[in-house]
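ugh ok so i messed up the first submission bc i forgot one of the chains. this is the corrected input, ALL of the components this time, i swear. 1024 residues overall. if the numbers dont match what u have on ur side tell me asap before i send this to the collaborators (the ones from the other lab, u know who)
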Amino acid sequence: MNGAESLVTTLLAGGVDTCFANPGTSEMHFVAALDRIPGMRCVLGLFEGVVTGAADGYARMAGKPAATLLHCGPGLANALANLHNARRAATPIVNIVGDQATYHRPLDAPLTADTEGWARGVSGFVRTATSAATVGRDAAVAIQAARTAPGQIATLILPADTAWTEGGVVAEALPVPTRPRADPHAVATAAAVLRRREPTVLLLGTDALDAPALELAHRVATATGASLMALGSNARMARGRGRVAVNRIPYPVDQAVAAMAGFRHVILVGARSPVIFFAYPNKPGTPLAPGAHVHVLTRPEQDPRDALARLADELGAPAAAVPDPGPRPTPARGALSPEAVAQTLGALLPEGAVVADESVTYGRGFFPATFAAAPHDWLQVMGGAIGGGPPMATGAAVGAPGRRVINTQADGSAAYTLQALWTQARERLDVTTVIFANHKYQILLGELANVGANPGRTALDMLDLGNPQLDWVSLARGMGVEAARTDTCEGFADLLAASLRRPGPFLIELTV
Amino acid sequence: MNGAESLVTTLLAGGVDTCFANPGTSEMHFVAALDRIPGMRCVLGLFEGVVTGAADGYARMAGKPAATLLHCGPGLANALANLHNARRAATPIVNIVGDQATYHRPLDAPLTADTEGWARGVSGFVRTATSAATVGRDAAVAIQAARTAPGQIATLILPADTAWTEGGVVAEALPVPTRPRADPHAVATAAAVLRRREPTVLLLGTDALDAPALELAHRVATATGASLMALGSNARMARGRGRVAVNRIPYPVDQAVAAMAGFRHVILVGARSPVIFFAYPNKPGTPLAPGAHVHVLTRPEQDPRDALARLADELGAPAAAVPDPGPRPTPARGALSPEAVAQTLGALLPEGAVVADESVTYGRGFFPATFAAAPHDWLQVMGGAIGGGPPMATGAAVGAPGRRVINTQADGSAAYTLQALWTQARERLDVTTVIFANHKYQILLGELANVGANPGRTALDMLDLGNPQLDWVSLARGMGVEAARTDTCEGFADLLAASLRRPGPFLIELTV
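and heres the new structure output, hopefully the right one now
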């Protein structure tokens, strides 16, 4: 048994049975090992940003890490932006990077780079394997690190000779540390704050946004008059009919400040204290009201469901029915607008849908119209690195077979990682991509105004994607995905409904 | 004057008048400054790998650095693979990365990352600006660092508030250090080695491959019986009729070893000592013959033309006419093959063409058939990070207006950075992309055999790009570039000739 075989077997023993890959020469023995050891599903990406973004989406739906397979420092470099997003989402990933053989590295061949250095910024764990005999154990530690709450990226760098040399030893799965519970003092403090009945918001993040945790938070809020809110971006939210409806802190700084203005107390449940995405001259860096008190019920690595249940008990909060969100919307008619698209989504989202959302400006208002949609999950790009959406949708479809993934997608961001469409076609994944083709970096036009700049022709040119216009129908077909374009709500509803009836990927370009 | 305005003015004062950009919020003041200060050509890329690959190609042709404009750590991350390639090419680039405002960084907003850490692996110089008052001086130092021989990447990180704050000060251009000359001892040693008339090769790299240096090297070789050879990959080679024909060390390890087997002495002229791209079990790490002596005439930062002239004088080598490469080939007919494509290229390359070559396996034999082509320059991807070709072609066209760029391009590599086509369309660049669509990672099939692996179905699947086939004509049209497909030599010759007659980009998909 060589090192690569011990690695693959150890991954499978640790429950890692899906590998998103873009291999190169130094990974050939890992690839060859996949032939000899059954059980690993390998999903090829044409670009490493697809590989890691898919691993992010996969783990959010599957509840366990995928492995990646990347090629040397530059392959890792291409993967970093979506690893950054995955890090911000606290997604577990066993990130395997093949590299130069240990004895070849000193020769500084062209592809040699600072692989470890590049990995550190996104990884909670980095190790370079040193021998075939120990790479199995290295992998077991990496899986354990990845699965340790709240989830992190564990990078294992695999010099080619540690893969091809005989003497590999399979390692048993290491125990995943028990998830820490909230400190009793934190529960008591939160209860005391809530009993004061001052304006208070429970700010929910990570898995405080799953359905059971939301119900507990709702019970607490109903009993105490507190509000519930989520951060602006979230890894996964349970939404739709039968789920507790929660709004997010808006992205634009003034709206964010307005949303938080009334709250004297902010109780964090799995959420970080909120910050504004960017600084703007003479604007605050956080949306918190001046003098607001921030209390931590649970940090992201602590169990929010347990803490919320204890908090509800401490408060003697009675059971509270999930509010009815009103009737499910009907598909909109006429010209496309953000509101009309949201209404149509609310009408047509199928039960169990997974929305992979990188709609940026166009989708900022999609939430209210989808509260009454069929139950679904909503995933967002967490680190602000654009190009997360199509890969995340791809991985989510692998991680949640049988559920339809709807990728609500800005055009400028989609252009970063359009290669994800090819993987969707290859794997016949049930993904409907909806491109909001406004042919500009709309967000930057707003930001240009926000920073007080007064744009002229050169500046506007740099934010314009309309010369030439990207033709998303051609691009999708070039990647093997069927596609169509429309500029009406009726057209959108027809195309969306049609895509839901048939297996495999489809792309809808909305001319907006 | 704000910091951004002082930065733009300082760049122009330092001769940096072209900026490849993919800006975000934190760069909006830089973008706004471009409106108010005339003289900077801004070229937008849809993805940062396009931006930096284009900056690489630009500088190789223009002989001076471009600036880049990237957005925060993740934007830099997307740019790293082609910065790695540029570093290996010793290309000067003033790499500007906007980032969080100095006072906002401690809040760890979603896009915050280890920007400096990621920059280090590719940069000879890294500095984070600390105030608007000093950013002009920082830029002047960065330009000086980038232009210091042999050329390097100088990264200037620009926190948003150092751009938007008033009090910017323009800095004058700093002197570029005089290029060091070869040590007299090195010249004397090389002469002594050559006088022995033992089997010796002058191994040429960097600008020892421009036309005047090649002629001097040829004069030395003719006088001493030495051979001339180039490294496997080179930033820019002067080639074609009237230029001294030089072969490269082949990529496959066995062929590389065979090519160098006869040489007892290797004299490096601007070249690094050759190494094999990857280690393979039981194969050597360098192609050098056992016991071969390596002598350094010039390191890459030293002036090779001066050294070769002094060496020729020291040897009393008489002038030597450039050998006639024989008749220019005629276009091939019939089915496509690497030899036939090379022959057609040799026949049709226009005078002054720039070949941006990322043909990987398909183009390994293109050299011999193009020795007798019209005079042209040949650029290669230097760091082995795939996806360098289309951006390099894009930048070369910006840096060499009036010359036709032919991008000989492997399909798997092109899929990494196909967004470059959009920039070619937008800027109406004279680039003909020739895609060798074999629909597989052909190089890896060879490597799989090289490492001794015996591929089965899973392994072969991971190297197969044919399910579905990428349709490059659709992809190009989606990016705004006209395109056509052919599977015959006649079709290729017709399309290539047609593309040379008309301005702007064109893509030819060769079904091979």
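quick check: The first strand of chain A starts at residue 18 and ends at 21. that seems consistent at least. Residues 6 and 170 of chain A are 5 Å apart (CA to CA).
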